[in-house]
Amino acid sequence: MHSIVRLLAAAGFAIAGASAAHAQTEASFPHKEGDYIVKNFKFDDGETLDVLKLHYTTLGAPVRDKSGRVTNAVLIMHGTGGDGHQFFRAQFADVLFVPGGLLDIKKYYIILPDEIGHGKSSKPSNGMHTAFPNYDYKDMVEADHELVTKGLNVNHLRLVMGTSMGCMHSFMWGEMWPDFMDALMPLACEPTQIAGRNRMWRKMVIDGIRSDPAWDGGDYKTEPQQGLRIAADMLIIAGSAAHQMQKAYPTRDEADKELSDLTSHYLSELDANDILYQVGASRDYDPSANIESIKAPTMWVNSADDFINPPDLGIAEGLAARNPKIKYVVIPTSDQTHGHGTHTWAAVWHDQMAELLKETEH
Asked: Which residues pair with 9 in a beta bridge?
């Protein structure tokens, strides 16, 4: 099980409750959890939900200046399939949240939302199945904004950052509320339409679930195993790191056993409708047209071994060049990188965050 925990921690797609070590790290950081209830939330496609529950976790406490402006709030948004608790993993929390860390919780007010469809927030598996509104990224970002401003009464963010899906949401925050934050740090994404291989593997997950007769239009009584196995296979590949996996599983038998164990673990945790919605929510994402509207200094970090966002496509450089506020950095493949999941290994991009915070300090 230790190898499963290690790979899940590195992967871009988190599974809640992956390890006892994770829970132990979480317990070592004082934090609060809560639910913010939004009544009659209107989604981008016109659907409404009478009661939308947004779960969140916070660390530290807000600090306000003489004018009442919050000066120390940091919003950190998770990736597809994850939740706010994934940031308690040692490779993130023990680097950033500790005394003297870049996001020391005695200095900063950390906000970790569970996005719509994830964690303990409202999601299809709560009972509505496919009658749940067909949310997209805009809905998720709008909900986070409502949580931050109305639920937590935060009127300014020192830093907006996110990993994978949260990275994409960071770019959207920068465009939708350009004066709301001092700095942006998107980790592991591209601010452009989901297309090419990136769209194809997501469509494979969606089609795999929908084509399983056991899915039954989303009204299954037991999880559709064929569809979930396709989803698990694609999530493993998408979040994989060739360099790390070759080191960890250097023989055929070791690789086969790990694949079997990891697939079994995914199958025991995934809900078909939830993952269908989570992967499908990226369908109309494309902030590229308004990249110039971002005002906050932005430290955009990808890794060279990222399967989902391979830097050799050359997309990022052209987008970053359109806005002088954006600095684009590619972390070279090494023993310290973990493919797409490098976004959660804070030691790898610690220096870039330090540079950003120093540049934007008041």
From this structure: none
Which among 356, 322, 349 has a CA at the least distance from the CA of 175?
322
Residue 185, strand partner residues: 161
Domains and CATH numbers, the chain: 2-197+279-359 (3.40.50.1820)
CA distance 305 to 355: 23
Q: Are 310 and 281 in contact (CB under 8 A)?
A: no
End-to-end CA distance of the chain: 46
The gap from C-alpha 353 to its chain's centroid, in whole angstroms, comes to: 17
Q: For residue 164, give every residue at least 6 positions away whose Cβ sits within 8 Å of its Cβ, in sequence order, or none.
A: 12, 13, 78, 79, 80, 187, 188, 189, 308, 340, 343
Residue 327 in contact with residue 353, Cβ under 8 Å? no
Q: Are 156 and 181 in contact (CB under 8 A)?
A: yes
HEC secondary structure over 138-175: HHHHHHHHHHHHHHCCCCCECEEEEECHHHHHHHHHHH
- If one counts every other C-beta atom within 10 angstroms of the C-beta of residue 358, the result is 9
Rg (CA), the chain: 19
pLDDT at 13 (0 to 100) = 53
Average pLDDT, the chain: 93
| Band (17; pLDDT cuts 50, 70, 90) | very low
Give CA torsion, residues 328, 157, 87, 108, to 10 deg: 120
Tell me, what's the pLDDT at 21? 58
- Compute the distance between CA of residue 38 and CA of residue 146 in angstroms, rounded to an integer: 8
What span, in angstroms and rounded, lies between the C-alpha atoms of 331 and 305?
9
Q: How confident is the model at residue 26 (pLDDT cuts 50, 70, 90)?
A: confident
Q: Give percent above pLDDT 70 in the chain.
A: 93
Taking the C-alpha atoms of residue 197 and residue 125, their distance in angstroms, rounded to an integer, is 28
From residue 318, how far is each of 190, 192, 235 by CA, in Å? 11, 11, 28
Q: Against a cut of 0.90, is the pTM above it?
A: yes
